[in-house]
Structure formats: C-alpha cells, structure tokens
Amino acid sequence: MGARRWALLGVLALATAAGACGGDDSSGAPTTATPTTAPLTTTTTAPDTTPDTTPGTTVIPTTTTGSTTIPTTVPTTTDATTTIPITIPTTTPTGTTLLPGAATTPVSTPEGVNGPGLTALLVDVRTGRHDGYERVVFEFLGDRVPGYAVQYVDPPFTADPSDLPVAVDGDAFLRVRMAWASGYDLTGDLGQVYTGPDRIDVNAPVVQELVLLGDFEAVLSWVIGVDAEHPFRVTILDEPARIVIDIATSG
C-alpha cells in the first residue's frame, strides 16, 4: 500500500513537470509574436505620418513664388502710366489752342459792305505781340469797316497801280485786300488821313514786315511777311473800328 502510494505520487510529479514545460512553450510563442508586431506597427506608422506632414509645409515656397508675380505686374502698370504724358502733348497743337478759330485758309467778307461812296478811312497800322500769337491792326476813322479778303499768296508782288516790283521780307505772305477803303479822304474834306510809313519793319519771331502794295480806286492792299504759314484769324472790333489779324506763333 505504501509502495503503491509512492508510485502514484511519482507519476503525478512527472505529469506536473510536463505541464510546466508546456506552459513555457505557449507563453514563449506569444512573446515572440508580440515584439515583432509592435515594432512593425510603430515604426511604419510614425515615418509615414511624419513625411506626409513635412512636404505639406513646402507649399510655403509655392506661395512665395506666387508673390514674385506681384513685382512683375508693378512694372507693367508703371509702363502704362508713363504712356499718358506721351499721349497728352501729341493730341492738341499749341497754336490753335491759344488761338481758337485760327486756320491757314482764306478769310473774307463781302466786298463793299459799306456801299459805294462810304469809304472807310485808314488812320493807323500797328503790330503787337501776345501769348501764343502776334497781332496786326488796321484802324479806321469812325465806325466804318471795309470788306476784306485775307489769304496766303506767293510772290512776286507789284505796286498798284504802277506794277513796279515790291520786295517783302519773309518766307510766307499774307495779303490783306480791303475794298472801299483808303488812307486818303477822297471827298477832299480831310485829305491824307493815314500818315504812317508804307513799309513797317517788325522783326518779330513770326511777323517780319508789313508793306503797302496799293491804295487806288478805294482798294487798299497790304502784305504781311511772316516766317512761315501759321494759322490766323480775322476779327472786327469797334470803338474805334478795326480789322484785327492774329497770327499764331506755333502750329
């Protein structure tokens, strides 16, 4: 009985020892799997997340590149602005701006506006310089103004009625022809009313010389020598009666 009990105890001891060895194998397998899985999961996830975030920050240089477009636009705007002053001087000629209504075409009124026998008497011829134009004035006695024709003509010139040649200084010439006008009172009451010179040396930038071409049969003719064909205008003024010719200094 005693021997059998010891034998049974021995078998139990062997069985217990075998169970202990089997428990070490089971715990060993999970231990090996756990360290392998944990590093793989941790290592793979961390690098994948970090690089994705870092390239995202490289968008900042892209924005910087976009900002370099702004300086490119600024010079373009500056170029457009500098074009404005170039356009402004090209649009309007100075002479015609300062002298509205001026042109190089002939200007006239119907001849004999006062009718036969009502002769306008010339008493003075003078010149003046103004901002943007030079002025020639023919002044008459009282309120009578003759008909006139003013236009650019070509030389040569001759005196009326002698047809003798007349020289006039200048490179272009405005002829002023006035009908029913004279520097002499044909009625005999006043006699010679114009006592000024027949040739007036002006030597202004535009107007060079004024020359009387003729005073015959109530037709009075003068020629204005100028440096070039400039636009001009003709105006009638009163008190005293005047024919005023303004010649632009430019344009």
Report a brief summary of the structure.
The protein has helices at residues 2-56, 59-67, 69-91, 94-98, and strands at residues 107-108, 120-130, 133-140, 147-153, 157-158, 165-166, 172-179, 181-182, 199-201, 207-216, 219-226, 232-237, 242-248. The chain is α+β, with helices and mostly antiparallel strands and 251 residues long.
Topology:
Elements: H1 2-56, H2 59-67, H3 69-91, H4 94-98, E1 107-108, E2 120-130, E3 133-140, E4 147-153, E5 157-158, E6 165-166, E7 172-179, E8 181-182, E9 199-201, E10 207-216, E11 219-226, E12 232-237, E13 242-248
Parallel strand pairs: 2-8
Antiparallel strand pairs: 1-4, 2-3, 3-13, 4-7, 5-6, 7-11, 9-10, 10-11, 12-13
Indicate the radius of gyration in whole angstroms.
Answer: 56 Å
Judged by helices, strands and strand pairing, the structural class is alpha+beta
Count all strands and give the number. Answer: 13
Q: What is the straight-line distance between the termini?
A: 151 Å
Can you tell me the number of structural domains?
Answer: 2
Largest sheet: 6 strands, antiparallel
User: Mean of the pLDDT scores?
Assistant: 73
CATH classification class of the largest domain = Mainly Beta
What is the CATH topology descriptor of the largest domain? Answer: Immunoglobulin-like
**How large a portion of the residues is in β-strands, by DSSP E?**
25-35%
Question: How would you write the strand order of the largest sheet?
Answer: 1-4-7-11-10-9
Order of helices and strands: HHHHEEEEEEEEEEEEE
Number of helices: 4
Which runs of at least 5 residues are low in confidence (pLDDT < 50)? 11-95
Architecture (CATH level 2) name of the largest domain: Sandwich
Helix content: 25-40%
Shape: globular
